[in-house]
Each structure stands twice: as C-alpha cells, then as structure tokens.
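cache lookup: miss for this entity combination. No prior model stored, computing from scratch. Input as submitted by user K.M.:
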Amino acid sequence: MELNEALAKLAELQKKLYAYAAADSALYLDGTTVAPKDTAEGRGVALGVLAGERHKLFSTPKTGELLDYLWARRNELDQLHRRQTEELRRSYAQLTRIPAEEYMEYAMLTNEASDVWHRAKENSDFELFRPVLEKLVAFNIKFAGYYDSAKAPYDALLNEYERGMTMEYLDGFFSTLRERIVPLLHAIGKKEQPDDSFLRRHYPVEAQRKFSDYLMEVLGLDRAHCTIGETEHPYTLNFNNKDVRITTRYDEDNMNFSMYSVIHEGGHAKYELGIRDDVQYTCLAGGVSMGVHESQSRFYENLIGRSKPFIEAIFPKTREFFPEQLSDVTAEQFYRAVNKVQPSLIRTEADELTYCLHVMVRYEIEKQLIGGALAVKDVPETWNRLYKEYLGVDVPNDKQGCLQDSHWSGGSFGYFPSYALGSAYGAQMLKNMERDIDVWGPVARGDLSPVSAWLKEKVHQYGGLLEPADVVKNACGQFDPAVFADYLEQKYAKLYNL
Amino acid sequence: MELNEALAKLAELQKKLYAYAAADSALYLDGTTVAPKDTAEGRGVALGVLAGERHKLFSTPKTGELLDYLWARRNELDQLHRRQTEELRRSYAQLTRIPAEEYMEYAMLTNEASDVWHRAKENSDFELFRPVLEKLVAFNIKFAGYYDSAKAPYDALLNEYERGMTMEYLDGFFSTLRERIVPLLHAIGKKEQPDDSFLRRHYPVEAQRKFSDYLMEVLGLDRAHCTIGETEHPYTLNFNNKDVRITTRYDEDNMNFSMYSVIHEGGHAKYELGIRDDVQYTCLAGGVSMGVHESQSRFYENLIGRSKPFIEAIFPKTREFFPEQLSDVTAEQFYRAVNKVQPSLIRTEADELTYCLHVMVRYEIEKQLIGGALAVKDVPETWNRLYKEYLGVDVPNDKQGCLQDSHWSGGSFGYFPSYALGSAYGAQMLKNMERDIDVWGPVARGDLSPVSAWLKEKVHQYGGLLEPADVVKNACGQFDPAVFADYLEQKYAKLYNL
C-alpha cells in the first residue's frame, strides 16, 4: 500500500463515519421534534441497522490494518493525519471489543428507552422506566469492561466523557466544591432573598420565541448555519461546523427556563461553529470532550449570561419583548432575580451556586449503580435521600426527581460530572480572558464578539486536534478548582452582602 | 445454503435497505423543513456516502446469488417471499447496470440541485438552474440506457414510475383527453364565471394551520402516525405504515392552495398508512406506483374534496375557522369557486379540468428533452409556447413557468404523466365504488370512512404485493380513459349549464 492510497482510504473511512453520524442525527432530531408520537418502532429498526452497518464498517480488520500501517509511518504524517490516526486507533481498539450484536441491540435499546422515559416522566412513573434502566445499566457495566477492563467500570465510563477522569479525582474535586459551597449556602440562607416572582408571570410562547431569536443574535449565532427547535429536553446537535441545531422548551410560567437554556445551548453551538474547516468530515470534527463542551455552554450561560454587565445590556430590549410582564422591573432587580440562590428540585433550573450539588447527587448515584452498590429499583429512594442531604429539599415525585433528566435514557452514565468540571474550567478561562482582553466593556454594550473571539482562539478552533487536557491547559493554564470556588464566593458575597 | 437461511438473509437485506431509505428520508425531511439555509453541502456529503453504501450493499454479487437461489426455488415460497424476490431481482438487475460512482455522483447532484432550484425559483433565474438541469438530463438519459437499452430513453424512464407505460400509449391517452377537454374548455369560456375572489381574501397562517388540522381529522388521519409540516413544495414522505409525514405551504392570500394540498397529500398518506403490516420493512412496503399513488391523492383532492356533498359537509366548520373572510359566502358559492375553470400558470393551483393540460406541457417537454430533440437552454421558450398553445396563457417569468415544479431538481423525469393517469384511474374507481357502496350519503355528513375503507380494500392494503396493473384492474376493472372524460363532461355541464 502506498502512503497516499492509505491516506485516501483514511479520508473515505471518516467520511463514511460522518455520513452514518449524520443519518443518526437526522433521525434523532426528527424523533425528538416533529415525528408523530407512535413512531419509535420504525425509527428503532433504522437506527439499529445503521448502528450495525457503521459498526461493521469501522470494526473490520481492514480498518485495523489501515490504522496500523499509518501509525507505523506516523513520522511521515502531518499533524492532522497523525492525530486522526491516533484517535481512530483508540476508537477502533475500543469498538472491536464490543460484539456487533450487542452494539446493535444497545442502539435499539436507547431508542426505545428514550420513548419509555418520556412516557415515564410524563406520568411520574419510575416503574415504567425501571426495566429499561436496568438493561441500560447492565449494558454500560459490560461496555465499561470492554472499554478498559483494568479500570473500575465507572472510571472506564468517565474516561469516555473526559479522558483521564477518575472517581478518585472527582471525589476530591467535588469535596473541595462542597466544602466551599455549603458554607456559602448557609450564609445566604440567613440573608433576605430578592423577589423573583416576576420571572414566573405569564410569558406567552410566541413572545418567548421572538426573545430566543434576539438572544441568538446577541450570541452572534448565524441563523443560516444554526436553527432553534423545541424539545422536551433542550440539546445541541451538530452535523458539521456549518450546520448546528439547538433546541429549547418554553414554559409559559417561567421565562427563565428557555432564556438560559437558549444561552446554554447557544454556547455549545458557538463551540461547534467555531471549529476549523480542515477537520470537518473527520474524527476530529466536533468538540473535544464533554467537560470542555460544558465549559463553553456554561461560560455563556453563567459567567456571561448571569453577569451584571450582560443583564444591563440586554434588559431594555428584553422588556420590549415582555412589556406587560416586566414594566415594573429594573435591570438590577432582574439581575438579582436570575442569580437568586435557592435549593430546588430541577437541575436545569438550578442557580449557579447549587447547580454543582445537583450534579453531585447524580455522580453519587451513577458511581454506585455502575459499581454495583445500588440496585436500579432503589434509585428513587437514594435520589430523594441525597437531595434532602445535599440540598435540603423534599422530592415530591419522580418526575421532579430521578426521572427529570434524559441522560440515562440515552445511555449516558458518567456525563453528569462534565457539567461541574465545565463550570470550573470556565471560571478559570474567564480569569485568563480578563488578563488578555477587555471583557466587560464590550459585554456591557451587548457585544460578545471579543469574548467569542478569545474562546474561538483558545478552545473552539481545535475541535479534536488537541487532547482535552491540552485544550484545558491552553485556555486555563494549570487547572485548579479553587478558582471556581473563589469566583462563586466573590460573586455571591456581593449579591448577598455576605 | 438452506432455504430458511436464505429467507433470513432476504429479510436482513430488506431491513438494511429500509434503514438506508429512512436515513435518506430523515435527511431530506430535515433539509426541506427546519435545516438552516446554508447547510446543503454537509447533507450532500452524507447523502452521497449513504447512497454509495446502499448501492454497494444491494449490488454486491452475493445479493444476486441470493436472489437467484430464491428465484430457482420460488415454487416453495409463499406469496410474500416470492413477490419480494421477484421485485428485488428486477431492482438488482437494473441497479447493477449503474456504476457505483455514477450512482453516488447523482445522489450528490440531486441534493445540490434541490438547493439551486430553490434559489433559481426564488429569483426567477433559469440561467442559475440551467447547468444543473443539463447534468440531470444527461444523467437520466444515461440511466435510461442502463435501465433498458432496448427501449427509447423516455420509455425506460416512464417505466420507472408506471410499469409498462410508453410514449405510444401516453400519446393516445393525452390526445383522447385533449379532444374532450378542449371543447369543454371552449364551451365554458362562453359562460359566466362564478365569483371566487373571497378565496383570495387575507387568510392568516395561524388560522390556516388550524384548518389543516381539521381537514386531517375529516380525512381520518391519525396524528399519532402522521404529522404535517411546511415546505416550499408540498409532499408526502413515508417511513413506514405507522409513520407518514405530509407537508403544505400557506399562502395568506389564497386559502385554496393549502386546503387542497393538504387533502391531496392526505390522500397519499391514507394510501401509505393503509398498507398491510406484513410487508413493512420489505421492498413491498409503500405504494405500488406513482400513477396509483396519484390516483389516491387526486381521488381525495378532486373526486371527494371538490364534490358538492363534501363541500356542504365541511363548509359550516370552515366558516368557523375564517368567520370574517367567509361571512358573506354560502356553501354553494364556495363549491362553485373551488371548481372554477380558468386556464392558469401554476399546475398545483390548477382546476380539475385544465390540470391535465399542465401535465401535457411537461410530458411534451420531457419527451423531447430525454429524446434529445430539445436542448435544456430552450426549455423556457418551449414551455411558454406550449402554455400559450394548450392553455392560452402568457407566461410572464420562469418562476411561474418552467421553474415552478421541484420534480426535475429531484431527478424525476417521467413522473408528471402519473398525475394525469392517476386522475383517470380515480374517476373509474369512483364509478365502481358507487356501484358497491353508498358513497355520497356518508360524505354529505362529513364521514369519509366508507370511502377510505373501499380504497383500503381495493388499493391501499396491497402495497407492492400486486403488480401496478393488477391494482388498477382490481379497483378500476379494464382501464378506460373515456370514463374520466365522461366524468369531467358531466361535472362541468352541471356546474356551467352547458
């Protein structure tokens, strides 16, 4: 085999993998947005077959030979091809350990599970979801062994979302955060709370849709390359760096939910749209890890979106979309309301401070589920106990409890810690950004372009070209969760006069 | 190979073909509805690769061997498997004549063409579309040779949409219709025209959307298995008999357009939803031919949807959706308005009588384009000349002329005659239906279920289990276009006092 021939085959392989991913994405997007209700079965058949075909394509020994050949000649490859080969070898090694049949079965299961979870959540019926969740957990334990049998199963899964992440590190990380967040929370508990009742006035969906359009404009999202849809659980889906979709959900009695979900998903979209052209249709397209992805979404959502300069910049326009609802509200009141700290039930509606506690509950449960220390049937009870312990709230039902998130139904175990890691990465990125450029002057004028340009340069552009840890280092320097804790303390000291 | 093993492989092959078709459909649906504007490139890459993979899967010699093996043992097969084998052998023979590269190139071309056509139509710029159309025509001429080199190229393409159809037959068919329609048209031209100006009052999109929901209810379309979307050009897309989508377009100055496009596409959807379960995920799923498909859509649209009993049944409710716009209108006036005969520019807005003349223009042009007697650059001129000759109208621009339809941009040459054939099949089905059951009593009460049950029994249920000609025979008896001409004469004699 000539090197050029091998490189052509490498490109062809990756284009095929892109095509299968695009097919999956289109079916998923359809299934979660416009598809008629009783149509999961047919989509499941298609997704199962496509997963099997992709599996066959990627796991054939010929692929292994091609990758070995290229790896042996890696010194002759440019950075792009070397990195592609390295990443594909890693995926190949992992995938070839999963039997094709199990892989297909799992693809069909997650499709079914999504449907069942929706119905279970709607009816707050954990028993409906339980058998499916049991299968999902069993699959993930088995897959963890395939991924890396030398690791504890949950460590092997964590590694999927943030390479190198371990329970040992996260136990330390979360206990640092908990030690600093819990006292803050107690101090705030003694202070007077701002009034945020105006956020829960009646906000018609149509006006909220227009407000979302405005927010996307402020974020600098080009609508010719990024649309917004509506789903039960908001998400970002990327076909390529010219085609990204975000979704949100409109709650007429809570304008805050869609507002911050749009900014959050918009942050994910900014990342995907900012990735360089020359990695498209390769395994290096797309964000590098879940932790880094969440650092971007939560950067826009919290560090910018819940900052005072940002609120002051957008509030006059916000009031134009909701003149009746916000006529008696000032920017200062709005700022305080969107930063009100209040232990609550729903992660996606949590304030910036208690958010990490929501993540810790999930981390704790996943660790035990995958470690075999907790049975699926006991999830609701454990969930409710931990919410009481960490957040001091009573969970009234599973809809507002352990059925609230879609992640498990999609087969994601080990994803949740990325949210907390991302928050912490982001705080450190902000600190460095403030050193490099004038962040708050432009933001106060509603201009996010310097912020976006900095993030594009330090994070977005690379896609998967660098290792996740190197991207973090590039933007954060030596990662230190204390920077995030410092940020929280300073922010809430001012807000609550601590 | 054991027979059982071969049958299992046959099922697996068809499930894979279903999965690729579902992936295509999901990407197409997305591309025509919610996808951001500048995203055709990435979708084209995916569609091209998937087309290549499907091609490879289906055209491998192993597939040929499997089909030959089963065909040799066809006497041992039940009807379903025998028919599947027969159909797949036909497709295999045809497909293996198209080189894989050309097949992939063509898939990417049609994706690009759809995008270019949209822009060309928007700007009424035929020159923009011309180079793409030239490529499409060249491909189709080449493909026609692959399909059946013994046939004239256009005959080979016609055969794709309605098996056995030829220019010779269609020349006769269309001249029969023309001989009966043109005198009718002249007679009507001397009569007073009904007032239909109220159809072009201002009809807000939101109210039209609700009206569409109502129409789907009247048609008996179960929304858990059939949704409605919005696209430039309305279409029906079927994943399987439990998952069908229709689309429409809302024109605020013309309530008739979406009304009859919904009923038309609804007719296609009824067909797909009525197909038996045991042919799903096989090559026999889906309507049997374009002509039979159009017979169903145009049955609901015209024979039922533009009938007096139907209008009388739905008019009171229609007025509730549009109280201001229709307050001074009676059911009789509405009936006359939706049946007003007036030679016009746009096929999809044409009345039932002149519709076939629109089809004839396209038939004539396709015949010459594929036959090599007409250059693509001369299409606009020829189009305009034929519209003047057949319909007596002057075409002011290409947007309202040869750029109006999406078919050619999707690579469909030879489809248009199906519309006229379908209309003629439908008229004969109605005649037989009236013999079998009470059609108009229930329709006058807004109850379409007996009509739908008859069509389901005679047409829908079979899917591809019978040959198209046998489905036509089953529902029509010996096909005779004169029945359609009789129907038109009787209908318009009453409407216009001829």
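stored under new cache key. Strands of chain A lie at 226-230, 236-240, 243-248.
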